UniProtKB/TrEMBL annotation, chains A, B, C, D, E, F:
Keyword annotations: Hydrolase, Manganese, Metal-binding, Polyamine biosynthesis, Putrescine biosynthesis, Spermidine biosynthesis
Cofactor-binding details, from the entry: Binds 2 manganese ions per subunit.
InterPro entries (UniProt xref): Agmatinase-rel, Ureohydrolase, Ureohydrolase_dom_sf, Ureohydrolase_Mn_BS
Molecular-function annotations in GO: agmatinase activity; metal ion binding
Entry keyword annotation includes Manganese: yes
Family membership noted in the UniProt record: Belongs to the arginase family. Agmatinase subfamily.
Xref: PANTHER family: ARGINASE/AGMATINASE (PTHR11358), GUANIDINO ACID HYDROLASE, MITOCHONDRIAL (PTHR11358:SF26)
Protein name as catalogued: Agmatinase
Biological role: Catalyzes the formation of putrescine from agmatine.
Cofactors (names): Mn(2+)
Length: 290, 290, 290, 290, 290, 290
C-alpha cells in the first residue's frame, strides 16, 4: 500500500528494499559541525536522494543499468548535533557492521571529516589499503584553531594511519604551505590542479590493491558545484570528474568502498550540485561495483 | 538496519510503519499540470515531509502529541505527467480504497484540482457531506481557456455534485464576477476576505455532519505563504489559519477527511511555506482526528 | 498575427491598444541611480506587468471589472542611465503631454525621486493640489551626501513647491530627526506608523480637492514587500494598504493621478512584491478612476 | 506614443513591427505540462525576450548585425494549460500558417514536446527534411508512464515520421538503454557527449538539404544552463555550443527553421540561462537566416 | 586614511572607535554547531552589521538618536568551530571582562546556546537577576539526542542557575510536553503565543530589578523573520516585537544586558531578517541604555 | 579589545593595520549608477572582503604567502550616489594620494567606469603607461544614450588619453560594430574571445614597461561569474583567468596598479563570484607585487 519510495524522493532511485540481499549499502552522514566556513552539508544526502528521481537508470558511458546491482539505501545515520567525537564513533561502528556483513560501503556526506571513521573502519579490514582522494583542499592539517577534529584534517589522519605513501590526492588547489611541505617530506602523492591525467599515471601502480575513493565535491570548479561549503575557483569540470570515475572503473584497481561529500543544498540555488552528485553516485555504483 | 525514516526526511514525522494499524493515511498528490500561472506544486508533498523533522511532536495549542494518533504516510501517488483525467481517476481509486478500509484520508497537493476526485470519493461514502473550503480563490469556474479539468474548477464541480448549499468557502478574495454571482444565486456560502469570524458562525450549522475540509495554502497572505503558485495580497495570517483549524477542532463538526494543497517549493525561498504547511498538517492531525 | 500582449507579459493585463481612446495611461519610470542602499527598482515596472497575467480582472472589494475602464500601457520611458537631471526632465515632459491630452497618469517606479517631476507637472495643471504620501520614509531631506537629486528628497521638494500644509504623509517610520522637525515646524502632516486610521480623519478635509497619491511600496512591512530597496520593519500589512486604497476610493477626494514606486524584483525572491504591486495597481485603477 | 517595445522587454531586441514585412517569425510555445521532473519552461520565452535588452545587436563571431535581418516577434501562442493534444494542434496550425506565408519559423519553448508539431508542419513543406538535434537526452521514448504525449518522445515521433536515418542527434548523455538500441538498429545517428567535432563530420553529408535544427538548452552543462527542467552533468560549454551554431552557419546546409527549448527561469538563479539563450537566438538569426 | 568603517559594513552604524570610552559593547557570537535543524547563524552578526548602513540613526518611536549613546563594536569572538564547550568558555570569559570594565553587553548570535555563558557571567555580577526571554521555543530541554550542550537547552540551564521563578518566557509556541510541564511545576513563567500583553502584566513585578533580555528572532512569525534556523508559523509581527522593546524601555525595569540571536542569512532570501535585526538592535540600544 | 577584523569580514584577509607601513593599498569603489542593465556592483567590494575569510593565505600556484606582502585595506571610498562626475573626481584624488605616497593601487569595483579616473591618475605618474584590459565587452563607446560618463566608455577614454596603441584588450566577445572598427583603425589591440594565448604573444612586447591591468569579472563565462551586471555566454574559465594572471606574474612586465570590477553580489546566488574574485585578488597580490 505504500507507493514506490524513489518516486517520493525517499530513497536513491533503483535501490532494493532489503539490506540482506544487497551488495552495496548507500548511507548518509549528515554532519557539518566542524566546518570553518559555510555549514549546510548535513542536508546533502537527503537532497541527493530526492533529485535522483530525475536520473535515467542507464549509463551511456558504461553501458550498464542500475538494475544490474543490488544496493540498499539505509538512510541517514542519526548523528548527535554538535558532538564530533560521538558522531565519528557512530559512523565507524556502522561501517564496521557493513564490512562485517560483506557490503560495499558507499557514503554520502556531510563534511569531509566523516570520511575519517569510514577509512579507519575500512583499514581494519584491508591492511594494504590505498586511498584515492579528489578534492580542492589538502585536508592535511593536524588541527584547526586548536581543534583536532576538523573538516581540515581527515586526510592527515588517514595518512598517519595507513602511511602517507598510500594516499594519493588529486585536483588539490588550496592549502597551507606547511601542508604541501608535509606531504612532500612524507612521500604522500599530491597532484595539484589536475585529476584525470595524473590519475592515469597512478592507477597502474595501484593494480589489484584495495582502494577507497573519497571525493569532495569541491574538486569541481564552483561553476560545476556551487552548492558546497568552501568553493575555490580553478577546479575541474564535471566532464573531467566523470571521466576520472570511468578511468578508475576501467583500471585494475579494486575499489572496496567510496564516498562523496560536502554537497550543501542551501548554497545550490538551482539544485545543479545535487543533481550532479546523484549522477556521480550512479556512475560510482555502475563503474566500481563489479 | 534502516535508520529512522523521518530523520532522513522520508516520511512525515511520527508516522507509523504499517498501513494496517493506521487510523489516518497521509498521501501526496503531486500534480500541477493544469495550473494557469506558476507550476511546481508537484514537489509540495515531498518538501512538507522533509521539513517535518523540524517540528515538535507536541501541540501547545491542543495539548496533544502525535503519538496519540496512528497515521501512515503512504508517499506520493505516481500520477502520469500531463494527463489530468488519468491522474484524477487514480486519486479517486486510491481514496476509495482508503475509505473502504476505514481510514481518514489526509491529502497533500499538488494543485487544487486534486481535491475534486477526493471529494467525489468521500461523497460516495457520506451522502450528507458538507465541504469547508479555505482559499484565496473561488475555484468556481466551469472551465479555463476551454479546459473543464482546470485548477480553477474543483469547487464548482463539488458544488454541483453535493449541492451548492453544502459548500462553505472562506477567505475568498479573488475570482471572476460570474463566479461570485453563481455562488450567490445558487445558495453557496462565500465569506470574502475573512476566515475565523465567519467560521465561528457557520460551524454550529454543521453540527454532527460529516465535513471534508480543503485548504488551499494561498488562503494565507503571500507574506505567510510565498511558496505557492498564485499568490494574492490581502490574505490571512498563519496565526489566523491555526486558530481556524483549532476552532473546527473544538466544534461539534465531524471532520472525515481533509487536504492541504498548492505548496510550491520552488517559490518558497526560505522554505517557510513548507514549514508552515507541516505545522498545519500536525494541527489538522491532532485537532481533527479524535 | 500577434498574440495577446498581456498573455506574453508585454502589457498590464486588460489594457487597451490605443493611446487615443484611453482615459488612463500606465507608464514605467525605470530609474534607480540615486538610491543610497540597494538599487534594482529600474526593473520594477516590467515585472509588475509580467506578473499581472496572474490577476483576475474583477475586484471583489469594489465589485468592478477592469473592462469598465480604458487604460493604455505606454511601456517604460527610456531614461538615460546615471543622469538624474535628464531623467527627471524626460518624465516631466511626458506627464505634461499626458495631462495636456486629458489622461489620468498612473506611474510605476523606479525609485521615489521619479514622483517629483510627475508632481511638478500635475501641480502646473492643478494649483490647489494636495498630495497623499504613503511611505516608510519621510523623504524630506534637502540633499543626500551633497546631492540634491536623491531618492531621499522628493517629498521635501514637492512640499516646498505646493506648500507643506498640502502634503499628507502616512505610515512613516524612518527619517532623520531634522526631517520630522521640519515637517512639524512647517505644518506638514505626518502620521507615524499608521495609515488607515489617520487617513480616515484626513480625507474629509480634502473633500473635492484634486489629490495626487504617491505610494512607496515600502510602506508595507518587509513581510509583505521584501522586494524593495530599503526595507524597514514595523510596517503595515497589504490588507491595510488595500483598505486604505478603498477608503480613498469611497471618499469625496478627487484623485487626479497616482504612482506606485520602489518595487525591486531582484530582492523579491518569490515575486510576491511584484504580484502585490500588480494587485494594488488594479485596485487603484478600479477605485480611483471614476 | 508607445515607447520602444524592446526597451520594456516586450519583444526580442531589434525585431520589426510588422508581420508582413518579416522574413523570420520568432514565437513562444509556453507549454510545460508533460515534463516528468521540474516544470517551469512555460515562462522561458518571456524571460528570453526580457533579457534580450542586455544584448549587443552585433555579432563579433559572424561580423553581422541584427538590422540586416527582418524578424517579427509574434509573442507566445496562448496554449490551453494541461491539455497536451490541443496545445500541439495549435502549434502545428500556427507553423503551417508561417510556412505558407514564406516565413522562417524560429521557436522558443517550453518543453521539448513543442518541437514535434513544428517538425510535422515543416515536413509537410520539405519532404526531404533532415533534423539536427542537440540535447542531453535521447527523447526517443514511445511513451512515459503510459503517456504517448510526453517531453521524452518528440525525437522518436519525428524519426518515425521522416525516417530515423534523417535524424542526427548530438551531445546525448542520458536515456534508456532501449532508446540507444532503437537508434542503432534503425540507422539513426547519435553522437554521444560531443557536438562540435561530430557535427563537422556530419554537415557535409547534409549539403544543400533542408534542415530543421532543434536545440534543447540542456545540451549545455548545468554550469552553463542551470535554468532548465532536467539538468545533467557532463555537458558541453556555451563556447562549444556557439561554435556549433557557427559551424552550421558556415556549412552548405540550408537551415529552414529552428527552435531553442527548455529554458526554465525559476531555476535560473542569476538569469544566466536566459541571457545565454538570448545570445544563442541572436546567433541563430545572424548565422542561419541568409 | 581609512574610510568610515560603517560605510563599508565593517561595524554597526554609529559605533564609536574606542573600547575605552564606550558604555556598551556590541559583539558577535558566531556559533551554530549544536543546532538540530538548519545551521547558518554563525554569519548572523556580520550580516546585521553590514545592512545597518541602511538604517537611520534616529528612532521616531523613542525620539532619540544613536549619537546619544557610546557603543563600541568589538567584532565577532573567534570561536573554535565544532567545539561547543570551548566556545562557551570563551564567550563567558569575554563577557566577564566586559562586566568587569562596566560595559553593557549587547550580544548577537549565533545559535541560542550562546546566551547561556553570557547569562552565567551576568548572574555572577547580579545575584538578583531576572531573565526576560522572547522565543518561539521553550529551550528547556536538559539535552538533545544525548547532548547537554544543545541549542534546545539554554533557558533550562539558566532557570536551574538563577531559579525558574526568575525566568519569564514570552511568545512560546513550540516545545515538548515535558518542557511545558517542567516550567509549570517549577514556577517558571511561560506566556504562550503572545508577547506584548503578558509583558505589560509582568513588567511591574520586575520593577528596579536587574534584567537580562534574550530575544530569539524566531519569536517573530516566519513572515517577519524567514532567515532563521527553525521557523515556526503563528508568531508575532515585527510591529509587536518593536512595541515590546519599547514597553520594556518605558518600564521601571533595569536592563543590564541583552542579546538577539538566531539570524541565519543564508535563509534570508531578501535580507529582510538581517535588516529587521539591525533595527531591533538600534531600538534596544536607544531604549534600554539610559 | 577588538577581535581580528578579517575574522569578522571587515577587511580583506591578511591585510595589515596601518596605511603607513603598507606597499599596497586595497580599496573599494562602490559605484554602479551608470550601468545600462543590472545594477548592484556597489556591494561588490564589501562582499569580496567578507568571503575572503574562506581563503587560504598560501598560493600553491605561485608558492607564496600573503604575509610576504604588506597591504592595507582602506575600505570603500564614500562616493555620492547617482553623481558620476563627483564620484570619478573623488576616485582620482584618492589614487593621486596613493601614488604620491608610493603605494601600489589595487582597486575593487563597482562598475567599470571607476577604472577611468584610476588610469588617469596612474598615467600622470607613468607617461609610458600601457593598459592590459580583460573583459567581455569592448567598453569603447564615446557615450551611451547620450551620456559620456557611462560604464560602456572607460576603455575609449583611456585609449584616447594614452594612445590606442598602448591599450591591449583580451577576451572581448561583445560590442558594437563601430567599436571594433574604431579599434582596428586606430591601432588598438583587441583579442577576441581568448585571453591566455594572445597574452603570451603580447607580453614580450610590453617588457619593462609600466602596465596597469584592469579586469572586468565578466571576461569569465557566466558559468564562472554569474554574479555580475552583464553576463555574456562564451567566456573563459576561471582556470584560464588564473593562468593569465600567473602568465603576467612570470613575465617581464612591470605591473604598477590593477583593479577587478563588476562583481554584483545580488546576482551571485551561491556567492561563487565573490569567492572567485577574492581568490583572484590574492593571486594578483602574490603575483604582481614583487
Amino acid at each position: 500500500m505504500r507507493f514506490d519510495e524513489a518516486y517520493s524522493g525517499k530513497v536513491f532511485i533503483g535501490s532494493c528494499p532489503n539490506y540482506g540481499e544487497s551488495e552495496v549499502v548507500l548511507y548518509g552522514m549528515p554532519m557539518d559541525w566542524t566546518v570553518s566556513y559555510r555549514p549546510g552539508s548535513r542536508f546533502g544526502p537527503g537532497r541527493i536522494r530526492e533529485v535522483s528521481i530525475g536520473l535515467e537508470e542507464y549509463s551511456p558511458y558504461l553501458d550498464r543499468e542500475l538494475k544490474e546491482i543490488k544496493y540498499f539505501d539505509a538512510g541517514d545515520i542519526p548523528l548527535p548535533f554538535g558532538n564530533a567525537q560521538r558522531s565519528l564513533d557512530m559512523i565507524e561502528a556502522f561501517v564496521d557492521k557493513l564490512l562485517n556483513d560483506g557490503k560495499f560501503p558507499l557514503g554520502m556526506g556531510g563534511e569531509h571529516l566523516v570520511s575519517w571513521p569510514v577509512m579507519k573502519s575500512v583499514y581494519k579490514k584491508y591492511p594494504d589499503l590505498a586511498v584515492i582522494h579528489m578534492d580542492a583542499h589538502t585536508d592535511l592539517r593536524t588541527e584547526y584553531e586548536g581543534e583536532p577534529l576538523s573538516h581540515s584534517t581527515p586526510i592527515r589522519k588517514v595518512a598517519e594511519l595507513i602511511g602517507p605513501e598510500n594516499v594519493y590526492s588529486f585536483g588539490i588547489r588550496s592549502g597551507m604551505k606547511e601542508e604541501f611541505q608535509w606531504a612532500k617530506e612524507n612521500g604522500m602523492h599530491i597532484s595539484k590542479f589536475e585529476v584525470l591525467e595524473p590519475l592515469k599515471e597512478i592507477l597502474p601502480k595501484l593494480m589489484n590493491r584495495p582502494v577507497y575513493v573519497t571525493i569532495d565535491i569541491d574538486v569541481l570548479d564552483p561553476a560545476h558545484a556551487p552548492g558546497t561549503g568552501t568553493v575555490d575557483a580553478g577546479g575541474i569540470t564535471s566532464k573531467e570528474l566523470l571521466a576520472s570515475i570511468h578511468e578508475i572503473a576501467r583500471s585494475e584497481v579494486q575499489v572496496i568502498g567510496a564516498d562523496l561529500v560536502e554537497v550543501a543544498p542551501v548554497y545550490d540555488a538551482s539544485e545543479q550540485t545535487a543533481n550532479t552528485a546523484s549522477k556521480l553516485i550512479r556512475e560510482m555504483l555502475l563503474g566500481w561495483v563489479k
